[in-house]
Structure formats: structure tokens, C-alpha cells
Amino acid sequence: MVKIFVLIKQVPDTHNLQINRASGTIIREGIENVINQDDFHALEFGLNLKEKYGGEVTALTMGPPQAESALRECLAMGVDKAIHVCDPIFAYSDTLQTTLVLKEVFDKIKDYDLIITGTKTSDSSTGQVPYQLSEALDIPLLTDIFSLDIKKNIVACHRNFGHESQNVEAELPVLLRVGRHYNEPRHISLLGIKNAFEAEIEMTDHACLNSPDCIDGNMKSPTRVTKTEKPEEMKRKKEFLKGSTSEKVQKLIEIMQGHSIEKIWIGKQHL
Amino acid sequence: MNFELKDKQKLVRSSVRKFSEEVLAPVAPIIDRDAEFSWDTAKELSKINAWGIQLPEKYGGADLDSISYSITIEEISRICASTGLTVTVHNSVGAYPIYKWGSEEQKEKFLPDLASGNKITGFTWTEPNAGSDASGIECLAVEDGDDFVLNGSKIFVTNGAIASVLVVGTRFKKENGEEGMTALLVEKDMEGYEIGTKEDKLGMRGNPTTSLYFNNVRVPKENVLGKISDGFKIAMQTLDVGRIGIAAQALGIAQAAYEHAVEYSKGRIQFRKPISNFQGVSFKLAEMATNIDAARLLVYRAAYLKDNRERFTKESAMCKYYASKIARKATQEALQVHGGYGYMKDLPVERYYRDVKVTEIYEGTSEIMKLIIAQQILRGNI
Amino acid sequence: MTEISEYKDVWVFTEIKDHERVDECALEILGKGREIADQLNESLVAIVLALDAEQYIPVIKEHGVDKIVYMSHVELKHYHEQIFTHLVFNLVENHKPSVFLFPSTEAGDALAARVAYRCRTGLVSDVLDIEINEESGLNLRNTEAFKPAYGGNINVKIITKTRPQMCTITRGTFQKQKSKKKDVEVEKVDYAYDTSNIKVKIVGTPTRKDKPSSKLSDAKFVIGGGHGLSSKENFDKLFELAKLTNGQVGGTRRPIIDGWMPEHLQIGISGEAISSELYIGFGISGAIQHVVGISDSKTIIAINKDPNARIFDAADYCVIGDANEILNGLLDYFTV
């Protein structure tokens, strides 16, 4: 039975951010929280693997109490279990602290075969956690996969790496990072929603960890945000091109060339 | 008293919204243009249990509460009102009465296929000579051994061209001389069941509305819904439920029109500023927002009462009357905000304007709604 | 534990691309690295791991470095997560740089994150600017990007309390600076790695692969079409132009309804949001539903015969004229 864990994150869904100038943080009140878009692809990937190999999919998130709604959504999508890693002391964790907490959590879980993550989160967008978790748990990370097979405790996959296409094998457990183009996440069904709200969510807090001393999001994160600002909105030039049609075409070609768009030879390989 | 939706209901909203924006939005203008029902879309709707929203899980339904039901219809209709119509009629006036009054055999026979969307259902009462005067129906079912032999015709049958089974309002005449009104479950495959041509409509063009003809259709007695003489009561109580769905549908259309009007008015520059800076426009938006909010509260209250009380006739009539009225106004104002662009088929606003009108007509006209409300008040239900 | 003051020097991971050239972005970062090193009064060091690494030294020397530290070995021909992480982390342990900058590439991002974890230090991704803060060291500015929120980015300033202070930088953020120090120190470090530890085993021979054609949302050059092109035949010419220029075609809602373009190419609300370098809209009126989807593009060109078309308000370059005529003109040029 393959034990699959999918890491998800709740992020604010907003077009117009408000910033608290005193604390330099984003005002999150009144903003809907949603599951990070990439994570839906990770969930879909996990659910597909379960459908193919059997097993169990668990959604896991580290976040404040309101992240429960994200886990309910994962349950509605079809995962079997949900784990909420939540404690006030985890707040303000940067990637390193997040990784350290997740390492503690997985050291406790022990029995895991696959950990699946999305590529990037839409809020901080660092994309570091998969690599760092791979270091922390000392398990391989496979990225840019386009086919995957599990035989006993070996995962064989076809992946792009650099400019190569490779067939690789690794022993379970393995971390997988999946991107947006891997699959089309399923829509959530109404029955799924009903069942999701009848399921239990497992809670993990600071006291549950084996060695909690190195964990303190606020005090022990090596990076600290000192200021948040909204960049100037880009104003468009709105420059009208003059002249005859052919003069306008000529000007357009120049603009295109300025953006490195050149004539290409059909059939030539572009790397 | 709590005005906030439950987390479950919020998830229903966000999930159905996402589904509608991704799956229904691309087909909405096409089924409107071609006046074609889309079976592909019906299959997609099956995947989210939209054909059995409130049916118990054992029949394959999602077993949700009535507010979640309203939200589902609202969100579908916000993107595609025709689809909203097909779905709400199937659920609320087709599957619902079978579940509420059907025998266990009838439920076992029909509900799994209805909940999965393998079969579509609906409800038909209206006839050429019986519209608002529902007691005037002439379709006649005459007892003959183990069957009733049905003759007559129905018009303006929503889902008429696609339904496999319909709840049909008829007069019955038994061999012992007993007469009355009954609701029969009439199946498309029965001999003598004939579907008329599809109506060419102003709006809701993606829903195939037809007439139906019954020529000596033999309907077995096990297809009588509820007690034989309860037909009229079943119809009236079914419509109480159905109207919440129609109100939710109107609400969804109004919401769509309103959102388009807000977006457009912020981006449309005239006299060197966005037209939303002019009170002539912004006051329209303020009115729409207020009306939609009020209508939404009425719809959710009626839904709440349905789950918690026996009768909600007055409240359901009120929400349908009010939501359809303000929705018609919202689409009209949204189109006006868009000016000439709103009149063009490039934008969906003209579709909302066409689609919305019938919400003031079907499942009881606004005039009948006021009649019901007034009757309830004068009977002491103040 | 080492005191912060003991960490010295600005390092740049000078990545070698396709075992044939120094990564452009790494050269750009050397330019910025020089500036920082001067302000801190520390040395700028280029770190090179490659097969036949010596061949890259002359080029790197021209970009203002004080020192080049390199390893050269056949196992370093391609980036390998375990080998590179191990070797670079050892270098950091032995030399203790105060700043370590990485190009934001497939290898650079991965290596930076892994090394930062082993050092238990902070890492800031996709930095836009670096300032020196007297008290706290570097002040790194990057964006906290809210996607797919249309264009609503915010900038954040971040300091790192631990050492080394690490960050990744994307191509084009800084400029290459050519300058040559007189005595550039070159140090070769011996390669040592026990490959029996390797966890991901390559089976068979890898094949060189073309990048898959990019999706609309990632495309650098997007050609948009609207109802103004007036026929499917004309609309098809967009695909021709895209083929000739390595671009991607997208469009408004209307061409889908008209049957000129498949569903998944819609740009805007309920379609894709793009963030291309260049976007050209042919015969698009500029309904907001479409415009929000293109607003993240760096440069926008709009072509429409109506001088009052709303698309012009969202454009950098506006062409009043027949979109089909302009399109034919461009095709004439690009058809070789």
C-alpha cells in the first residue's frame, strides 16, 4: 500500500492587496483564503497514483487555524486523511523553519512512501521547500516528471533534467514536485463536500514534535521581512505609430526585434 | 440569528463557481446561440453530483441542505442560466416529489438514474387552456385494469425534449366513478408518448422546451405518485420547493449582470473619467447591489425554512417574486450601463437580459406569487 | 558556532551552462557582486564547478572578480544535486563567505536551497535589488508575487540574520560589468565524492531534448486575435506568424464563438493570464475581460482600425489601421 502525502498551502486570493504599513505585513482580513493553485495539481497527481496503485492519500498543511478549510477542500477533492500542523509558535516561519517543522512531522509519521508538492506557492513564491525537505529527510527529489511507475519499493520515472530526457530510478521514499502542466485537477463534487465535513482532521502542534527546541517561527527564522510596499503601477506609453501601413509595419518589426523576436528557420531545433 | 454561511456552504459556492467558470462558461454562449442542450455538459455536471444535490447518498445523491442547493443553482445560473434551469427543474420539481411522495419501489427504480444524471426528469402541469389556473387541466387518465390510459397534451415543458420520466399532472377517472387530480410518473418509452417540436424562445435557449402529446399512453398504477387524489396538493407543495430554485436562478443571473456592470463601468472612460464616477451610473450599481443582497436573504431564508419547518409557501413565493423582479431590473440596468456594447452579442449582458424574463413567468407568474402571498397574509400568516 | 564577523567575501555561483559556456545571468550577478564587495571592502569570488573548468577562467576574469575557486572533474559535467550540494557546502564550511549569490536557473535554485538548508541559513529567491544596510548586512528586495492575481505584486524587503546571506537572482535583473583586476587569484580545489551514495540512478542513455513548446501563460511572445480579423482564414495567419516567430497565439472570447480558435487559447477572465515580454493584439477592441489577462505583459502593441478602441488605453504602442493589412505586412517580412 503506497502511503502518499501531499503538501498544500493556503494562500490569500486577492487582486488588491492592502498592506499594514506599521508591521509591513499583508492585511489578511476580508480576503478569501484559497489553496495554492499548484497544489491542486499535486493533489490530483497523488489521487491518480492512488487510483493506479492503491494506497492512501493524506493532505498535510502547516498553517493557522483557518487553514482547516483548505484541508476540508482536499478531503472534498477525495483525499483519505488530513493532517493540520498548527501552533502559534510556527507563525512567521520562513522556508528554513518551515522545513525544520516538516522534517519533525515526517520523522514522527515515519511510514511514508511519497511526498508530493506543487512547484511554487503564489504568495511568497520561493519554491525552496521541496529541495530543503529533500535535504532534511535525506530522500531524493524528482522534478519535471512526465511518467512514473512504482514497482515494489522502486519508483521509475521519465523526467526532464537540464536539457536531457532521462529514465531514472530511486528507492522509496521519494519527494515529487509536480507542475501545472501535469494534469487537470478534478472538480470538487457536492457529495465530496458533504463527506469532507464529516471527516476528522488530525492535529499536530509543537508539543507533538520529537525535538521541538529548534522550532520558533518568529525568533529562529533566519530571514525577516522588514518592509512591504506596493510597487508603482506600470503606466502604459500609449504611443501612436504614424505613417503609411508599410512604415507602421517597419516600426513594428523594429519593436519586435527589440524584444529579440527574429526570423527563425522552420525545422531548426531551438534549445 | 447568523447571517454567515457555514464553511460547508462556502465551499459549495467556491467549488461550483470554479466548475461553472471552467466548464459552463465556454459552452454558455454556444448553447444559447444554437439553442442546443449539451449532453457533454450534462456528463460534466454528473461528476459534481449536480443531478442529485439533495437526494440521499444511498440513491447516489449529495444529501446537501437547501441553502447549499440554492447556492449551487445560483452559481450555475451566474454563468449559464439555461443549464441552471435544466438542473433546478430536474432536482426540485422532478426528483424531489419522487423522493418525497414516491413509494420505495418508485424511489429504487428512478432515483439512482436521476441522481447520476443518466436520466433527466421534470414536471409538467401547464396545458393550452390551463396556465395560472392550475385546476383547469384537461389531460385525462382513465382507469383500465392495472393501468391508467392517458390522453391529452402539455405545453411549455421544461426539459421536455430530454426527460426520460416526468411528473405529469392529470385528471383521473376510476371505474368506481371516483374523480380528481393525480400526479403520474410518465416515461418517455411508453407507447403513445410523443414529444412536440422544440419551442423557439427569447431566452433560456439552451434548455429544450417542448410540448408533449399523450395518445392512449398506458401508465401502470404503480406509477401513481403518492395517494391518487393528492395530485393537486403534491403539485402545490412541489412548486413551493421549485420556486426557491427559480429564485436562486434569477439571483445568479442578477449577480452576473451586476458584476459585469461594475467591471465595465470602472474601465469605460467617457469625458476623461470612468463612467462609474458619474452618479447616473454609480447609483444604478448601488441599487443593484442592495436589491441583490435583499433577494439573496429572502432566498436563503426560504431555503432555511424548508429544512426546518413544514410550510414555507409564503416565503418561497416572496423570494421568487422579489428575486425575479430585481433580477429583471438588474439585467436591464446592466445593459444600459454598457450602452451600445451591451446590445451586442459580443458580451453576455444581452443574454442575461433575455434569459431573466421568464423567471417572472414560469413556476407561477409574479401575479400568482402576489396572489399566494396575499392569501397567506389574509389567512392569518402575517 | 562561528561569529558573524568571521564570515568574509562575496561569492557568486558561476554556473556553466550545457558544459560549454558561462551562464549569462551569473556574469550579470558578478557585476552586482563587484559593487557589493567594494562597499563591504571584501573580495569577490567566483565559484566554478565543471568539466574542464579551466577553459572558463579567462571569461570570468573579465568580469571584475578578485578570485576564482574551481573544481574540474568529469562528474561535474552536468549539475547533480547530491554531488554539487556536497562540494559547495564543503567550500562554504571551509571558507565562510558572508554573501553567496546564485543565478535563478534550474540548477542555481536547487543548489542554493539545498546549501542554505545545510548551512541552516536564510535564502531569498528572485531578488530585484540588493542594498547594504549598515546594521544588519544586506537588505534584499524581492517581490511577493500574487499569482494569478492580475498584476497585483507587492515588494518586500528582507534581511538575513544568519551567514552566509544567500539569494537567487533572475536573468536581466542586473547588468554585466566588464572590468579586469590585476592579480586575479585562481585556486583549484580537488574533487572528491563517493558516488556510491547516489540515490537517483540514471537508467539507459539520456537523450537530448528540445524544450516543449511553451504554454500561453509562460510564453515570451504572444499574438492575440479578436473579432476584427473578420474571418477564420485571416485568423489562421496568426498561427503562421507565431510559427515564424516562435510565438504563441491567444485571443478573446469572440473568436472561440466564431469557431476560429480553440477554447484553451482564450486570454483574460475565464481564460489564461499571460505575462509575456511582448504582446501584439490584432483587431481586438479591448473589453476588460480580455485586458486584465494581458496586463502583466511587459510591452503591449495594439492594432485596431477604431481610433477610440479601448485596447489602446492598455497599450504601449498603438497602430490605427486594418489589422489584416498589418498582419500581412509582418508575414511578408518574417516569411523567409
In short:
The complex is a heterotrimer of chains A (271), B (382) and C (336). Chain B has helices spanning 7-34, 39-47, 66-79, 81-101, 104-116, 231-267, 279-308, 313-343, 349-356, 366-378; strands spanning 120-124, 140-144, 147-157, 163-173, 179-187, 193-198, 210-220, 224-225, 269-270, 273-274. Chain B is α+β, with helices and mostly antiparallel strands and 382 residues long.
Shape of chain C: elongated
Please write the string of helix (H) and strand (E) elements of chain C: EEEHEHEHEHEEEEEEEEHEHEHEEH
Count of the separate structural domains of chain B: 3
**Helix proportion of chain C:** 25-40%
Q: Profile the largest sheet of chain C.
A: 7 strands, parallel
Query: What is the CATH homology-level superfamily of the largest domain in chain C?
Result: HUPs
**Could you report the average pLDDT of chain B, rounded to the nearest whole number?**
96
The class by helix and strand makeup of chain C works out as: alpha/beta
Structural class of chain B: alpha+beta
The chain-level mean pLDDT of chain C equals: 86
Roughly what fraction of the amino acids of chain C lie in strands? 25-35%
- CATH homologous superfamily title of the largest domain in chain B: Butyryl-CoA Dehydrogenase, subunit A, domain 3
Distance between the termini of chain C: 64 Å
List keywords for this structure.
heterotrimer, A: alpha/beta, Rossmann fold, 7-stranded parallel beta sheet, 3-stranded antiparallel beta sheet, globular, B: 382 residues, Butyryl-Coa Dehydrogenase, subunit A, domain 1, Butyryl-CoA Dehydrogenase, subunit A, domain 2, Butyryl-CoA Dehydrogenase, subunit A, domain 3, 3 domains, 8-stranded mixed beta sheet, two-stranded antiparallel sheet
